[in-house]
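Lecture notes, structural biology module. Today: joint structure prediction for complexes of four components.
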Amino acid sequence: MDRDEEDLTARARIRDAALLHIGEHGFERATIRGIAETAGVSSGLVRHHFGSKQALRDACDEYLHKVISRLNDRARADTTFSDVNYVADARATMGPYQRYLSRALVDGTAAPLFDEMVRMTEEWIAAADAVHPDPPGVDAHTRAAVLAAMALGIPILYQHVSRGLGVDLFSPEGGELLTRTMLDIYSRPMLSAADAAKARAGLDRARTDRGDLDD
Amino acid sequence: MDRDEEDLTARARIRDAALLHIGEHGFERATIRGIAETAGVSSGLVRHHFGSKQALRDACDEYLHKVISRLNDRARADTTFSDVNYVADARATMGPYQRYLSRALVDGTAAPLFDEMVRMTEEWIAAADAVHPDPPGVDAHTRAAVLAAMALGIPILYQHVSRGLGVDLFSPEGGELLTRTMLDIYSRPMLSAADAAKARAGLDRARTDRGDLDD
DNA sequence: GCGCGGACTACACGTGCGTGTAGTAAGCTG
DNA sequence: CAGCTTACTACACGCACGTGTAGTCCGCGC
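The predicted structure, tokenised, for the full assembly:
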């Protein structure tokens, strides 16, 4: 239905089980036997369908990339302020796969996925820049990359954030609290424009002191 | 000198090697034999000093916590706007241990470390709130937890960010670019107060529609 | 019916690695 | 010197797990 035509097949069940196991225990600790058991198949079938443990991981990455692309397309259609929610939305939809994603990103895989998030963030930044009075110090792409990493820090450190908030970030209450928090963070600058300018001036001074030629 | 009195001992060398190996390959893939080889000792000595692989990991966590506490104390003394740099500073000082830290945070260990960062962020938020005209929607501690996770997302996703920026985040140029980017991000709100209020109103409406009693 | 390919299982192999054990050398105390 | 503790090594055990192999069942084309 909302998956591929291969959904109910053993192959799909194995992939889903792998996403769960690897997300829960990490790639190394996750065992083919454990994945097979969760999927309700023999361990040999895992190898039959995917060839090796690494290939199974690759298949998981590819599958998630497809799912997220679809999710992004849907989010792109929604241009209201619920854009702020896109991380929360993604988390809700991705559900149990969130831990897998976090690990994949941290491990350095899933690069195209991160880049796609940067692209989305870039669009958002461009819109924000359009209504901002003074020009930014660095280009939108750079800010998008950093901002995407920051946004992803929340689901990646989900357990720590949940502990700090006192509620599970995945629960409806946690999701709403996070959204309200993000509204504060994104609408209330931590630094005044004057303070930022002052800091920038300090950086410029340090740079010229070092003898760099651009100014 | 800047370490403990046990610095040059085999025990310290093993700990350092473990931080490197686990940071580089992850806890599971890191082997006691490999750590021992890097430390220039036999694998048995690792067990002799730390008892088990897990205990070695615990010792690494504890050691890093100590180092970071010292780093925080130093940062606390600096109340200028270079506060924005505290993540970058930490990364520079932590150097090769950064990957270990990221993994530890993602794995859920190093909870006290995260909580300490939340505490630091909370102080910073309180200072920003003092000069902000309108009151925040959520309390400072909640915002601090989320903001700390966001800030940590940058070093955790360091390779992706580096790719997006086109320079190594660890290089001096990368560090300066990051600082300038952070200045933009922290001084230029992504949402206007009006937009945030609109989104909040939407959330309130949804909440009362659900029949919650507080308003 | 026959053959054949794919899905699937049971089971054995090899190995890498954590862990346990025994033993050596050096320093300290009496 | 004996006796003990501590740092340290060499080596073997055992297990868990990825991988390889052989074989069964089922469906489809001829």
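Point to remember: Chain A touches chain B through 72 residues (CB under 8 Å).
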